[in-house]
Amino acid sequence: MAFPSVLSSTGYQGPNTDATSWTAFTGVTVSAGDFLVFGCAADGNPTLSTASVGWSLLGHSPGPTVGGLTAIFYKAVAAGGTESLTIASTVAEKFGGILLRIAGATAIGGSSAQGDSTNPDPPLHDAGTVRDHLWIALCGRDVSSLPAVPSAPPAGYGGLTTVVQTNSTGVQIASAYRAVAAQTENPGAFTAVTEQWSSWTLAVWSAAISTTIAVGGASLGLAGQAVPTVKGRTIQIDAGGLTSTGSPTGVIRARIVTIAAAALALTGKPTNLARAYIVNVGAGLLSVVGSPLAIIRARTVPITAATIVTLGRVVAFGIGVGAGLRAMAQRIRIRIGIGI
């Protein structure tokens, strides 16, 4: 496992007039595999949303009374190019935001807090397990006096980025980050004058965990949001290809998956080779398509000079499949027993 890394952290100031829609940025160059996190602050406490393709809302952290809301949006970039983000608000407000472009990440979680005081304090967040996390501390603040930006991030955090509007009725946002392998994080406070504020502690990580992945004379492609090859003991691809596309789709907790002179394609939501003890495909093709669809808990599935194509709602292969198989099912389970 490796720590995600921040490629860039860029602030965007919204207009000094209230609006119900804000195009936060356009034309930002991104690469396939980038993970984008955008923190947006609003002068009041509206509900924010976006229709921009591929973007999701993690959540809102309202200010304590009249303002200082922050909301977190994120996106996993499937293909390089340029990105834009437009945010809609249920109430006309002023806005500001920070975009973090991150490498080596596929997932995000966070906890929020609010207050009306000096020194906005992002809360304790429990990410559920110890991983190589990138931790992001973020705060948004109502602006009733200038200057309003924090003068320092939480202790041990770097990359302080701040945005503030140039009037006394707007909004301010700040973020900083650090990499720590831990399950929980309580960043400590930003240093700032008294204002109404909301804050976040965000954990960003890669969900892809494998002990061994060997690709010989072949290609390995994973595309989509939360598309992992996860906790595989051994995954060996010789002169073939492994392609996994979907949200989530993966080769999950597989003990051994061997694809020799062949191709393995997984497409769906969710579709996986789940908890398979051994799956061997020799000089053949294994294609899995569906929602949900899987080769599930199979002890052994050897396919030699043959083809497996599965298409349907639920398809499961049992012990000892020894020849070519084509299965199609809708709302049924197909089990192939010993010696077929």
DSSP strand tally: 28
Low-confidence stretches: 224-228, 313-340
**What is the SS-derived class?**
mainly beta
Number of separate helices? 0
- Strand fraction equals over 45%
H/E element order:
EEEEEEEEEEEEEEEEEEEEEEEEEEEE
Strand order of the largest sheet: 15-18-21-24-27-28
**Biggest sheet record:** 6 strands, parallel
Mean pLDDT metric: 77
Q: What is the CA–CA distance across the termini?
A: 40 Å
Overall outline = elongated
Global Rg: 24 Å
Summarize the amount of helix as a percent range.
under 10%
What report would you give on this structure?
With 340 residues, the protein is mostly beta strands. The chain has strands spanning 5-13, 19-30, 35-42, 48-49, 56-61, 69-76, 81-93, 95-103, 107-117, 125-142, 158-164, 171-185, 195-205, 213-216, 219-223, 229-230, 234-238, 241-246, 249-252, 256-260, 263-268, 271-274, 278-282, 285-290, 293-296, 300-304, 307-312, 325-329. Strands 15-18-21-24-27-28 form a 6-stranded parallel β-sheet, with no helix packed on it. Strands 1-8-3-6-5 form a 5-stranded antiparallel β-sheet, with no helix packed on it. A 5-stranded antiparallel β-sheet has the order 9-13-10-12-11, with no helix packed on it. Strand 5 (56-61) and strand 6 (69-76) form a beta hairpin. It is elongated. The two termini are 40 Å apart. Residues 224-228 and 313-340 have low confidence and may be disordered.
